[in-house]
Design goal:
mainly alpha, 6 helices, globular
């Protein structure tokens, strides 16, 4: 992990870990609501019992949050997990009726809570795309 990845991983990891921790004891109606939204992105999710889905979602968020906070896990791998998660959240936002204004992009008042999660997708990109510097990269200069 690079020094510049620490703030990215720390903020998103803590945020997602906390979200998953808070979902550990979801009531069945809340779990069913989240499941219905998730099924817009991943249709087979609708075949899972709502209570079980709530537990799976909680454990998945806890796992992703912990992975982002684990310093020995490569940033690229943590970024891929974050990218899949945040990309799914953004797709859910776009596919859920009432979340966007007429243009289909800008959030409605109801969609702001999901639309704001686009920041996680923006954080995933540098974690995945950042490459290790090669010897001489910083010191190589063009001839004058």
């Amino acid at each position: 992990m690079r020094l510049t990845h620490i703030p990215l991983r720390l903020t998103t990891g803590a945020f997602i870990l906390n979200a998953g921790w808070g979902k550990r004891h979801l009531d069945k109606d809340s779990a069913a609501g989240l499941q219905a939204m998730a099924a817009r992105v991943i249709p087979p999710v609708s075949r899972i019992d709502a209570g079980k889905f709530g537990k799976i979602l909680s454990y998945a968020e806890i796992t992703l949050g912990a992975a982002l906070l684990t310093p020995f896990l490569p940033s690229r791998l943590a970024g891929i997990g974050l990218g899949i998660f945040s990309g799914s959240m953004f797709t859910m936002y776009l596919r859920t009726p009432g979340m966007t204004l007429e243009d289909g992009i800008r959030p409605s008042p109801q969609g702001t809570a999901l639309a704001k999660d686009i920041w996680m997708l923006g954080i995933a990109a540098p974690l995945v795309l950042d490459r290790k510097p090669r010897p001489g990269d910083a010191t190589r200069r063009s001839p004058s």
